Amino acid sequence: MSTRIKDRLLYIIICAISFITLGILVWIMAYIITKGLPYISWEFLTTDYRGDREGILPSIVTTLYLIIISLSISTPIGIGTAIYLVEYSKPGKTIDVIRFAIVTLAGIPSIIYGLFGYMFFVIALNYGNSFLAGGMTISIMVLPTIIRTTEEALKAVPKSFREGSLALGATKLTTIIKIVLPSAIPGILAAIILSIGRIVGETAVLIFTLGTATGFPTSIMDSARTLSVHLYMLAKEGLSFEQAFATATVLLIITAFINFISSKIALNIKRFAMGSKN
Amino acid sequence: MKSDLQKIHTQNLDLFYGDTQALKDVSISLEEKKVTAFIGPSGCGKSTFLKTLNRMNDLVDNVKISGKVFLDNLNIYEKYDIVELRKRVGMVFQKPNPFPMSIYDNIAYGPRVHGIKSKSILNEIVEKSLKNAALWDEVKDRLKQNALGLSGGQQQRLCIARVLAVEPEVVLMDEPTSALDPLSTLKIEDLINELKKNYTIIIVTHNMQQAGRISDKTAFFLLGEIVEYGSTDKIFSVPEDKRTEDYITGRFG
Ligand SMILES: Nc1ncnc2c1ncn2[C@@H]1O[C@H](COP(=O)(O)OP(=O)(O)OP(=O)(O)O)[C@@H](O)[C@H]1O
Ligand SMILES: [Mg+2]
Description:
The complex is a heterodimer.
Chain A: H1 3-36, H2 42-46, H3 57-88, H4 93-107, H5 110-124, H6 131-155, H7 159-167, H8 172-201, H9 204-209, H10 227-236, H11 241-273
Helix pairs in contact in A: 1-11, 3-6, 3-8, 4-6, 5-6, 6-8, 7-8, 8-11, 10-11
Chain B: E1 6-17, E2 20-31, E3 35-39, H1 46-52, E4 63-71, E5 74-75, H2 82-88, E6 89-92, H3 103-113, H4 119-132, H5 136-139, H6 152-164, E7 170-174, H7 182-195, E8 200-204, H8 208-214, E9 217-222, E10 225-231, H9 232-237, H10 242-248
Bound molecules: adenosine-5'-triphosphate (ATP) and magnesium ion (MG).
């Protein structure tokens, strides 16, 4: 077989695989949306889930709150840790232990985080089923992802940028803030989007820690249910598959929306950090 | 070690990377507002020595340095503010390394870091630096465009302009033209000839002709030591050391 034909064949196979993957994705989305869309109404989106009302507004709000709470805890810690590991730490025993811990944490099934969160935050610290307990637990859960993805992003920033900045008399901290971090923003954004994905999709951890209350959350000590938990409860108890699909559709749309917004925000941060527009 | 013309001089400088010695007992006096070229085979310590002059070696793990390096008679390895040092001793790298931001912001980066905020002053500095680096005419209409869009030669002149913007006294250049085409190389050489009126320039080069064309003095390095140091004319016409002659005439690895 000539090289040209082999090339051609390989190309066709790769295309086919890509199309199959894409096809499955589109099919799942189409399936969920066609099943869910007919049940989405203004009322469904704007009321709560009580009595004869079947709305999901509290769950939408809860999902957003939880994302904000978890990320405001885990992002600074995660980015800070990654900066420390990549920019400051000297290789040695301590660093090996930290890295081992991070890898281990990343590999733990989420139900274990749920149990831990329940025992520690809910029971021992007496936070009860609450945003505080749920947010803390979720933060710990997404921390390894944020650290590792940010680390990769920082490592990918060419050494020559750092040298150029330091040679101009910039301090290490200035170099990190003005050169390294802005260059790493796409990677850090990827970390955040991955985390949002995990937060939005999580159920096991949250049932233990944030609970399943259906009302509108009013404080950080309240229990509430996110869209995924709501979806899980609806499906598990066989209450209503229509509602479950409708909820899933909303979940899909929200996730897409959040990803879109995050990338816009990150782009602006990058522009801003990389200097004036004069 | 006494001439008033000397800008930088070193005394018995030894440098180790871990256990391997990269510089051996280097004592040299570099003259103000002259171009000094460092030549020598690969791995002989030219870059290492250059980096001791603005303490960029501090970034490397496991470096041990002993001996003295004086800038205007003050030892830079003793109670010397590194920020101040690097402001006074700028560095241009082998591979052009513009930051991924606009041309303007690249030049303004140094001055901003050193606390200049006024837009009009920054504008002035940017224009002056780009003019001094013979780049102004080529980029004056696109200062806001990303610097990574410039050609290699333009990028290197941008990096020189970026260094000039912090008003250094000494400019270190580590093979600044080795990644460039002949025409860009010529431009940079002309530029260096222009710059030596105001700056002390120390340049590492593998190109003998280049060293001959642009430098006033030349130091020949071998295995971490300076074998011979003197006026470029003399080194290239009547070298004292056999090893220098072998290297210059190309009979050497
Ligand atoms: N960061 C480092 N860690 C360990 N050894 C190093 C380091 N940098 C350089 N060396 C070693 O020190 C010696 C001198 O290196 P240096 O880069 O100064 O040589 P050079 O004369 O600039 O060579 P070239 O002409 O190839 O650039 C070499 O043997 C090199 O392997
Ligand atoms: Mg070198």
